[in-house]
């Protein structure tokens, strides 16, 4: 190996080492401590849910021997656990990334406003039309607003979902959703 080849190899090795050091510095994640505010909010919310559930009276019935306390207490503990794990992740340098097809796009106010309109329409129509029709319109409208362009297939799926939830509540939970104009038919 000549002196020029040896010098080129040494320079190449030095450049590779410098690039590796730069990659190592770039690989160290930056901490986004603003996420800790979200963690704190989730922890406070979890504690509030647990405290509020603990204050519930001792309600029980023959068909519900455990009462209403366990579910909110479990949810409060889960909220607190999510806050703890999220805080650990944030302190280790983790951060959320929008890696989807719409990464970097601005917040779409129009879509949110249309979804709110669909939910308000459902709330206004549920007593008059009943759950099956208003729920189907809710599911269909939300799917269309969120980008579905297969209108008839989406409508069919929405009707099936509306009927399934109606009978799921009626048979599975023993709760009656409003039948509206379909009273006596369902």
TrEMBL record:
<feature type="domain" description="DUF1468">
    <location>
        <begin position="37"/>
        <end position="178"/>
    </location>
</feature>
<feature type="transmembrane region" description="Helical">
    <location>
        <begin position="112"/>
        <end position="131"/>
    </location>
</feature>
<feature type="transmembrane region" description="Helical">
    <location>
        <begin position="33"/>
        <end position="51"/>
    </location>
</feature>
<dbReference type="Pfam" id="PF07331">
    <property type="entry name" value="TctB"/>
</dbReference>
<keyword id="KW-0472">Membrane</keyword>
<keyword id="KW-0812">Transmembrane</keyword>
<keyword id="KW-1133">Transmembrane helix</keyword>
<feature type="transmembrane region" description="Helical">
    <location>
        <begin position="71"/>
        <end position="91"/>
    </location>
</feature>
<dbReference type="InterPro" id="IPR009936">
    <property type="entry name" value="DUF1468"/>
</dbReference>
<feature type="transmembrane region" description="Helical">
    <location>
        <begin position="151"/>
        <end position="177"/>
    </location>
</feature>
<protein>
    <submittedName>
        <fullName>Tripartite tricarboxylate transporter TctB family protein</fullName>
    </submittedName>
</protein>
């Amino acid at each position: 190996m000549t002196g020029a080849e040896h010098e080129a190899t040494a320079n190449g090795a030095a450049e590779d080492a410098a690039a590796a050091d730069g990659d190592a510095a770039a690989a160290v994640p930056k901490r986004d401590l603003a996420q800790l505010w979200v963690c704190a909010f989730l922890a406070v919310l979890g504690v509030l849910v647990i405290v509020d559930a603990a204050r519930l009276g001792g309600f029980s019935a023959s068909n519900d021997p455990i009462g209403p306390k366990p579910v909110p207490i479990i949810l409060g503990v889960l909220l607190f656990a999510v806050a703890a794990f999220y805080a650990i992740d944030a302190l280790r340098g983790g951060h959320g990334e929008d890696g989807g097809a719409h990464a970097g796009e601005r917040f779409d106010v129009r879509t949110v406003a249309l979804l709110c309109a669909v939910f308000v329409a459902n709330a206004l129509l549920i007593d008059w039309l009943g759950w099956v029709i208003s729920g189907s319109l809710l599911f269909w409208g939300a799917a269309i607003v969120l980008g579905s362009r297969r209108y008839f297939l989406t409508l069919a799926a929405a009707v099936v979902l509306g009927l399934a939830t109606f009978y799921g509540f009626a048979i599975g939970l023993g709760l009656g959703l409003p039948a509206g104009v379909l009273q006596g038919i369902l």
